[in-house]
Amino acid sequence: MEEGFTKHPDQPWRVLEFYSGIGGMRYSLTKAGVNAEIVEAFDINDKANDVYEYNFGHRPYQGNIQSLTAADLDSYGAHAWLLSPPCQPYTRQGLQKQSNDPRAFSFLNILELIQDTSQPPTMLFVENVVGFETSDTHSKMLEILVNAGFVTQEFILTPLQFGVPYSRPRYFCLAKRKPLSFQRPLFDNQLLQSPSPLFGHADEVMLCQLDETQESLDKLLQSCEPIERFLEFKNPSQQPESSFMDTTSASMDVFGALEIDGEGGAHDISSLEQYSVPLNLIERWGSAMDIVYPDSHRCCCFTKSYYRYVKGTGSLLATVLPKKRGKTSSLKEQGLRYFTPREVANLHSFPEGFHFPQHISLRQRYALLGNSLSIAVVAPLLQYLFAELS
């Protein structure tokens, strides 16, 4: 390799983790079994860094990433950069300013520094929301990577394709700098929507095409575990079936927001009662709620506003099974509750050893999880990226 940091076979890959959040990328790297060392992590969010430090014993660099220079990046001697930049510039609900959104500046700044580094990284991994792939930021990213000698393989994948009953499709870009190459070069410079290349099915080109038929979806869902496997409280006797939250203590705005004791930090996180959906929210927003059951094989994506808002932020769990499912039955009698932060973490495939520090409020836990990633999806992608040709 003419440029870049040399790596001996027995040495770990040196990795920089940008926008490290609560450590989803680092957990994915561990789950992938990659011999790697995180030489530095970067995140501007103080609470996210509290969680990261609590679990890994290392506090990420908390300065503005935009202040980093090429010399700074060279000083780390990293082989690979892992990046999960802010998704707000590309979400359907956002203003879609793309590269003109200030939240996109740091990501583009990091990419542009590649050409100025004396020893650029040999691999990159980028995660973002679906919609990023049609943005001008994406076009600029590919232009920079091509000019820097990288070859890419791109994916849009969801945890449902890995047996997890969680609908959270995300965009991923894997990049290797020549002369490094992917194990399946057949898919170079393509956007794939199947994980089959990750598992050695290089000849199954048709599986990499988008298939949105109902039959295909049904087959996919049948391969997923039931939601009950991911629940913290599985025994019906543990569910708050009739213990509805007193609506006199919950206020609601026009967006269906749940405001409880300010930040929600005054409650005992382990208390089940706080997860019950107030009756007044059910009455007003029931028709907009996504209701799932313990034996369901799919739930909606949890956003950072889950628990704060009930509309479009994630699924609610029915703890009392009605004779006839759906909204034709009275939702008030189904014991609706929010998924707990531990359950959301489970659906993100975080390990049992992951924990929040006590001072992180309930609202903050949901927000941090909503900004995180699916380890079940990212781990095999990283395993594929770091695989070396024999």
Automatic annotation (TrEMBL):
Keyword Transferase: yes
Superkingdom field: Eukaryota
Active-site feature positions: 87
Molecular function in Gene Ontology: methyltransferase activity
Annotated GO biological process: methylation
Annotated Pfam families: DNA_methylase
Keywords: Methyltransferase, S-adenosyl-L-methionine, Transferase
Family designation: Belongs to the class I-like SAM-binding methyltransferase superfamily. C5-methyltransferase family.
UniProt-recorded name of the protein: C-5 cytosine methyltransferase
Native source species: Trema orientale (Charcoal tree)
